[in-house]
Every structure is written in structure tokens, then in C-alpha cells.
Amino acid sequence: xxxxxxxxxxxxxxxNLVPIPINTQNVARSKRKLQYLKIGNKIYYxxxxxxxxxxxxxxxxEPKAN
Length: 66
Hints:
alpha+beta, three-stranded antiparallel β-sheet
């Protein structure tokens, strides 16, 4: 289980990735925007799932219309 991450680890920040607060993780899971593995009542993520969530959350900047 060394390649699985806990919500606390993700909230504290993973190497080279922005930290995601636990509240944000909860909302994203309930809206099915963040993949997770649930064993008993423990939640786990893979780094790939966190990276996918971050990529999907990017908002493209567009110039304002005049």
C-alpha cells in the first residue's frame, strides 16, 4: 500500500503537486470528480487520480470581450 495516498497526505501536499484540502476532496468525491478507493471506512488515492483531478480543475484564461 505504499503507492496509495491518504486524504491527510494529499491535504499536506504531495511532492510537486498543490495541496488539496480535505473538504475539497470530500466534495469532489461526492460529485464523482475525484476517483478513490474505499476499504472499510478508509479512503485512498493514487497519485495518478490526484493528477487527473488537478488537470480537470484547470480553468483556461480567455481575454475579455469588449
